[in-house]
Amino acid sequence: MQPKAASDFSRSQELGQTLRNLNRSRYPYVQNPPGCKKRASVALIIRIRPTFPDTATFDTSACGLPVGSDQARLNAFFAQEWVQRGDPEVLFIKRSARKGDRWTSHIAFPGGGRDPEDKDDLAASIRETREEIGLDLEADHCLNVGNLSERIVTAWLGKTPLMVLCPFVFLQMRFDAEPLTLQPSEVHSAHWVSLRALTSPYLSNYVRSDVSGRFGRSGSDFIRPIARLLFGQVLIKGIDLIPTESIYCSSGADLLPSGPRASTFTSTVLPLLSSTKPSWEKPSQQLILWGLTLGIVSDFLRILPSCDPSKLWAWPTLSHLDYQFSIWLLTYAYRKQKLQEIESSYPASHTEAGGASGPGELDDTTFTTFQARSRKEVQDSALLEMLGGYYDRARTAVFLTLLLRIGAGSLLVAWVVRKVRKHRTPKL
Predict the structure, then answer these.
(1) Which of 404, 381, 394, 383 is CA-nearest to residue 214?
(2) pLDDT by residue (tens digit) across 195-211?
(3) SS3 category, 208
(4) How far is the C-alpha of 174 from the C-alpha of 235, rounded, in Å?
(5) Helices and strands (H, E) in the chain, number of each type
(6) Of 87, 112, 138, 346, which has the fewest beta carbons less than 10 angstroms from its beta carbon?
(7) What are phi and psi of 342, to 5 degrees?
(8) 248, 217 Cβ separation under 8 angstroms
């Protein structure tokens, strides 16, 4: 059965209970695999937007650092009426466009690589957030609630480990906090997005990613066109983001158009007759959540009782139809098994309407059991370098399809040569 939806007025209460549960128990530390030393941390920052006609207030004596206990601060914050009626939001950034950067122009969370001077992974996320968007996560109105499962990030097809990614969850308890200050070289813009928008089934999209840069670190100008021709593009599930508030870096190079709007037939009339976007709709302005950041969002939504994050995610594939079919065929049993494992990991109160525990009311034992299952699954998948089982089968499918292409091409060439020879042979 599908998880029952939380009403607008219970969504913040559900979030409060989930954050309290998350704060009681942390996900385990994941060691770097052999040959991979890099670690990176990101900050998933949540705030509550007051609904009309409520006014947001912050009570330092009840929710501030002097209170001491994280649980007491969370209890006091979510007990406020404006919070209970408010709309939870998550902060995303759009990274600046930088040539040669693997994550250029991506939607992401504030964060970055861990430096030698960082005390731990948490300190790295706090420092990177301060540097990138000017938000001090150690301020009186901010609280580190906990962390999400750490994961080993690999190159596409899961062969080369790149780093261990460590997501941390923070609650910003002041809605009227100081405005963000974006670092131009790192951040193009920042966007607050309602939690409701992240779970909407009508905002799904697909991202087409260039496959030529995904086969190791080599990708010369000669190899890339051949890879594009042979493999097409990678199709990855994404979500269109609709922000409630956006902040742009005023000193960014791509804030304003670099030239006049095109007025030729091919750039104005032709797009009206096809799905191609007009030239003035810059692709860089699109806000599509996908990839690693979507995976982290799914991890978080998975512990919200009313959410079903499996609807937000799809297995990556290639754009060419023959590859799509072979990957679908060879991974069918594996995908079916994994989906069954995910569904079985939900506690009864998470999946059955009318259960003993409603949305946001998972008791400690139930939540801990559910979280422990999630941890084991994530640990196992991390040891297999994340989606390793799927990528193993996908590689086999791609290899077999290439062999079929070569075989079919060879037969076609042989047939053409035979026909040509037969045509040129003089009749006696």
Answers:
(1) 394
(2) 999 988 888 888 887 77
(3) strand
(4) 39
(5) 13, 13
(6) 138
(7) -65, -45
(8) no
Tally of CB atoms within 10 A around 333? 10
Whether 384 has a pLDDT exceeding 70, the answer reads: no
Residue of 270 and 162 predicted with greater confidence: 162
Residue of 261, 279, 283 lying closest to 270 (CA atoms): 279
Give residues with Cβ within 8 angstroms of 98, minimum separation 6: 104, 185
The tokens describing 185, both together, are 């070289």
Report the alpha-carbon distance of residue 384 to residue 151 in Å, rounded: 10
The set of residues, in sequence order, having a beta carbon less than 8 Å from that of 304 and lying 6+ positions away, is: 14, 15, 18, 360
For strands 151-154 and 161-172, give the pairing.
antiparallel
- For strand 39-49 and strand 161-172, is the pairing parallel, antiparallel, or unpaired? parallel
Predicted pLDDT of residue 64: 86
Give the DSSP letter of residue 320. Answer: S
Find the mean pLDDT for residues 304-321. Answer: 79
Cβ distance 402 to 318 under 8 Å? Answer: no
> Rounded to whole angstroms, how far apart are CA atoms 187 and 178?
18
Contact 170, 44 (CB under 8 A): yes
Number of residues that make up the chain: 428
How many Cα atoms are found within 13 Å in the side-chain-facing hemisphere of 92? 29
Residue with tokens 């504030």: 110
Instruction: Tell me how far apart the alpha carbons of residues 17 and 19 are, in angstroms, rounded to a whole number.
Output: 6
Q: Which residues contact 402 (CB under 8 A, 6 or more apart)?
A: 230
Place of tokens 């009749």: 427
Sequence-distant (6+) residues with CB within 8 A of 13 are: 78, 84, 360
Contact predicate 156/214, CB 8 Å: yes
Pairing of strands 151-154, 142-147: unpaired
And the tokens for 338?
């994994």
Please state, rounded to an integer, the average pLDDT across all residues of the chain. Answer: 79
d(CA 195, CA 156): 29
Query: Residue 217 phi/psi, 5° resolution?
Result: -95, -10
* Alpha helix ranges (H) inside 119-163: 121-133
Q: Which amino acid is at 63?
A: C
